[in-house]
Amino acid sequence: MSNAVQRSLAPRAPAILPAIPLCLALLLPLSFTQAEEDLPIEGGRPGLAEAEQANGFVVTALSLKEPRARLKEIRVDLGRGEEEVVPVEVLALKDLKAVKLELDGKLPDALRVRAEAEVDYEMIPGGSIDVPAGEFGRLWLRIPPAAQAAEGKCTVRVRAQEASIELPLHIKVWPVDFPAAHRLPFKAYSQTHVMGSGKYIDGTDKAMLPAMLDQLERLGCCQIETIFSLDPTKMLYGVKEKKSGKPLYDYLTEHAPLTAAHLPDLDFSAWDGYIAEYTKRGMRQFCPTAWWGDFGTRWMYLQPFAETAFGKKLDDKEDAWRVWGWLGRQVIAYLRTRGVTEFWMRIGDEPDASELPIWIETSKRWRAVGFKVWSESVQNLPRSTKWLTYQNPHTDGWMVGLSYIDDFLTRTRYRSQAVRRRAQVRPEKWGRYTNGGAKDTFVASGKACRPFGDTHWKYVEDVDIYADGKPLVVNRPSPWGNKKQDVGFHYADNIAVCLAGGKHPSQADIEIEYGVRRRTTNGAGEIAVALMQPDHVWYYQASGHSGHDSYMGNRPKCWYGALYDLTAHGQYCCYHWKKEKCTWRYKKGEPIRFTPAYEGLRDSVEDAAYYRYARHALRVPKARLDELIAPEGMPILKMIERTRQSNWWHAIDPATTHDGYNKAKRALLEMAAEHAAPPQ
């Protein structure tokens, strides 16, 4: 983590404890403000606080939430063929140099453990770290895959100069094979042009792309999301005209001007090696992107092609679509001969309701070419029965932000009931809204006027807003940058309006009509929006700006997809230019360097595979699975409700440590072992 984040976890000590950082008082299960006789005694030795102060550091269990718990022992449970990393966090009471992990004792030959250190967000085998006073540093234990069941114990020693703290380590490889076939499919939500596609095609670096794809394969990636996502016309470079065998642009130059209705057949054989890198790893969903501005035609990218082929720029929308159709159909026909089986087109970047008409037009066009279509569903669309119903017939897949997945499933999978209500909006004061340069826009804060009464905003859907009986246009949640008039907005429990002529809303009668929807558990109600078959549903948890794109930030991600029984999961970026968000790093001629963020995502993929295996292959009753992870009861992985701005969702408690995830996985391994055991 960054120094700023580390310092935030170690606030300044109060005057009564000048030598000890206050963050130590947050450590569980004891506080250094206690008297020595109150401290626990273990094995006749002095209390831990005294030993820790003498050593100059504390070993803590990594989590995303204070207070930190002391790390007392390490337990790791795996299946055959599974890998695991375990974080060991060190809180320095004084400046520490060359802190490292040592193993004391012999493990079975089948168990190989490697100590690593985290330096600048990278995993360094056999390394050490320096930790300034009052900050946290991280060390790691890597347990590589084992081919056979085994069990062993030894001691892990955390050493800082002459001081050390010992932790018992217990590793068990169960007689269960890692169920790779049950991994939650991974849709890598990033263009792989930054992963080496372009360099592979032009021959400048043939090693980068295969190395990247090896890691995506470990994550269960199913997509071929290519360099063509950024500029689809790059598909045409390196391609030949089929009959003559000439490079396409040479052919076009010789035969121009052509028309959009009479373009040549193409030879894509130059792609053979490139596409084979994907298909031999089981990635068979071709997924380019059609978006930007008008959600479809992207004429700006067609102009260089048009000037060569037609001798002029494209100025006709239908001609533009003829070019896209010509290219798309030929790409599909070629890829089918190379083992690609699914063709998806991502349309748009988080469209809101106002953009759905052009989105639907674009969907019809690409479906006619032969693509399935999808886009990200956020911006309150998943909380709207009206807009989901409108979009449903025109989409084949839904990628929903995690903070909207409960809303989406309530309307598309579970029975629910809804009522319509009408109310006046009469705040004591309308606040002027100017964010993003918005003009003549005013907002009634929910805290001031409670527009939905005692109903929590998370149950509210499809809000209509009226001014003096006239309906306002309501099609996106945020008034950010608004300059339109006769429009309204609803986000969380806030109502915003911009009236004709800049009229102040206190001079008008503002009313709202809205639905209140709640899930039912007694069989009453109905499914509000029955998804068109065969619709696919997956979710993504965007990287965000929290600084938690780390091992513990990524460890819960695939659990959500498995718990909700979705068809895939997404990740905003795999190969990122920001060090704290990067999952791995590549430098030509060197091995890929892994980061804790990647290890957390990979471990999460493995967790979810065991859960899906238990659910679908072993058919473990849901009640038993709810003992592992659920929003109610007392499961091992407790789901808590989170809210932020106008979003709400369930997430695994951020105080969960590696041990919590390991306990849940151990229970799944026990279920799998029971199934594999021969009858008595």
Verbal overview:
This protein is α/β, with parallel strands linked by helices and 680 residues long. 25% of the residues lie in helices and 28% in strands. The protein contains 17 helices and 36 strands. Strands 12, 13, 16, 17, 18, 19, 20, 30 and 31 form a 9-stranded parallel β-sheet that branches. Strands 2-1-4-9-6-7 form a 6-stranded antiparallel β-sheet. It is globular. Residues 1-22, 24-47 and 543-548 have low confidence and may be disordered.
Question: Which structural traits does this protein have?
Answer:
single chain; 680 residues; alpha/beta; nine-stranded parallel beta sheet; six-stranded antiparallel beta sheet; 17 helices; 36 strands; globular; disordered N terminus
Task: Write a short abstract of this structure.
This protein is an alpha/beta fold.
Which helices and strands appear, and what pairs or packs with what?
Layout: H1 3-8, H2 48-55, E1 57-61, E2 69-70, E3 74-80, E4 84-92, E5 96-104, E6 114-119, E7 122-125, E8 129-131, E9 136-143, E10 150-160, E11 163-177, E12 186-188, H3 197-202, H4 208-218, E13 223-224, E14 240-241, H5 248-255, E15 266-267, H6 272-279, E16 285-286, E17 289-290, H7 299-309, H8 317-336, E18 342-347, H9 356-369, E19 372-377, H10 385-391, E20 397-401, H11 405-412, E21 415-424, E22 431-433, E23 441-444, H12 446-449, E24 460-467, E25 470-471, E26 487-491, E27 494-498, E28 510-519, E29 526-527, E30 536-541, H13 551-554, H14 557-563, E31 568-571, E32 584-585, E33 593-594, H15 596-617, H16 622-625, E34 629-630, E35 637-644, E36 647-652, H17 658-676
Parallel strand pairs: 3-11, 12-31, 13-16, 16-18, 17-18, 18-19, 19-20, 20-30, 30-31, 34-35
Antiparallel strand pairs: 1-2, 1-4, 4-9, 5-8, 5-10, 6-7, 6-9, 10-11, 14-15, 21-28, 21-29, 22-23, 23-27, 24-25, 24-28, 26-27, 32-33, 35-36
Helix pairs in contact: 8-9, 14-15, 15-17
